[in-house]
Amino acid sequence: MYVAVKGGERAIGNAHRLYAEARRGDPAVPELTLEQIGQQLSHAVDRVMTEGGLYDPFLAALAIKQARGDLVEAIFLLRAYRTTLPRFGAARPLETDAMAVSRRISATFKDLPGGQMLGPTADYSHRLLDFALAETGLPPEPVPPVAGVSESSCPRVTGLLAATGLVEAPPPDSDEADTTDLTRTPLALPAGRALRLQALARGDEGFLLALGYSTQRGFGTTHPFAAEIRMGSVEIELEAEELGFPVVIGEIAVTECQMINQFQGTADQPPQFTSGYGLAFGEAERKAMAMALVDRALRWRELSGGDDARTPAAPAEDEEFVLAHADAVEASGFVQHLKLPHYVDFQAELELLRRLRADAGAVGCADGRAAGAEAPESVP
Amino acid sequence: MGVLARASADELEAAWAALTPTPPVFRYLRRPETGMVMVRGRIGGTGQRFNLGEITVTRCTIALANGTVGTAYVAGGLPRATALAAVFDALLQTEGPGGPLATHIVAPMAQTQADRRHAAAAKAAATKVDFFTLVRGS
Hints:
A: alpha+beta, 13 helices
């Protein structure tokens, strides 16, 4: 428990001024512009938009600048800002089938319709520091465009398998589908898969990455294949009430990942591949992959025939553990609240310890510890 | 409306400046207002919808002197560009399909957008690979 304290306004004001000075750094060095952050630190912008739950590259860049590159703090700033905006409605679900693809790879089929397209990636690089980047003003070598390219969309890899029934069909969509929104309704467990995916999309990339990794290492038995990862831009369509017909309001960049896992089948379902799904704003491949792994791990109960008696076998399968701890803003807030004054609490514990030691001394322990006496586990 | 929504603020300003003889008279039915729209994905890409996150959107509704109502919903937080898009929407309704605005302003914008998409696709195509599976000799 912490208590309110008064005073310190001047110190706080000066501390914020000092923070602003530190943010600016040496005034002899040119100040960062939001355009520079948006263009040249785009992965940071994408992460802040995804976990901040708001697609707006300008605001995300501003948050990153204000937070001095602390992405969790920037996510917090963006989350706080979005609470000031009214909501006009919900867009029609994204059609990633129609994505203008800039990257598309599959680890399951070497030759697939539409081909493997690496796009802008650091994969296959040696991760050697490129000192040429330390020199400014050198433009990168341009990519030679390929003539006669058609912009036809790529067929989905799982679609190719679904035709033969070897991979499960995703749960069907309908206008009546449950769209309970985590930003409006507190999380209730058990959560449906749609709600879980919203929580995972907003979830901390590092946390999901570690959980996804844990499933690969045996904490939750899955053996996933990256059936398809695609990145590109999709249109946002909105049916505004006063118009009565859907209009395109813009395009956004997204990354999508479909992992497939072998599945032995149950009494109701034949043996087939089952899938985990990941989707994130911008170019966010690691996030989308980790999300897909955790999505699949959290489906264990549904895929084991809905046996309520069983308990999760691994942290990544534990819905409460995953969903209650995935949010970086919540986690950061609760950890950092420990900085707030706990003076009264601490005084109480100090008093208790002194009394225990005095009591122990009274029964004759030379070092003040009572033999066999155990410290209480917690102090209310 | 999609073409106007995808156009950059600079493109809309240029089109506005090029309007002859003068920019039209209009009044706001709803001044530009920035809010959010929930973006939804689909489980597995094709299945049940889920909330992914929101996007900032600015909307505006105007009426021309002749009473025609123009509306714009544009992703992002640009009030002026959205207002211009709403005016163009009304002007395009007034002149009907194939009018001078559609021909001289919207069509070139659509072409620019198509060219941009095509250029991105042509560069991405340069990263297309054929993986070889090597067979080990005995």
